[in-house]
Amino acid sequence: MQNAHFTALNAKHSTLDRKIAAESQRPLPDQILIADLKKQKLRVKEELSR
Predict the structure, then answer these.
(1) Which of 38, 41, 39 has its CA nearest to residue 13?
(2) I need a surface site. Which of 5, 28, 41, 48 has the fewest CB within 10 A?
(3) Do 9 and 44 meet the contact criterion of CB atoms below 8 Å apart?
(4) What is the pLDDT of residues 13-25, one digit of tens each?
(5) Residue-by-residue DSSP string for 1-50
(6) Local confidence pLDDT in tens for the 50 residues of the chain
(7) Which InterPro entries match (predicted)?
(8) Whole-angstrom Cα distance, residue 46 to residue 23?
(9) Largest CA distance in the chain
């Protein structure tokens, strides 16, 4: 169970990382969206470190 949760969090972290990178590459990136994605990514990272 613990391993499945860890794997799911890693996948979510990677997905958020890709979304941030994709949004940053747009001609007019949405800074509010990027900030929100970074906050979500930080929450996942904190959960992974527990």
Answers:
(1) 41
(2) 28
(3) yes
(4) 999 999 999 999 9
(5) -HHHHHHHHHHHHHHHHHHHHHHHHSSS--HHHHHHHHHHHHHHHHHHH-
(6) 689 999 999 999 999 999 999 999 999 999 999 999 999 999 999 999 98
(7) DUF465, DUF465_sf
(8) 23
(9) 42
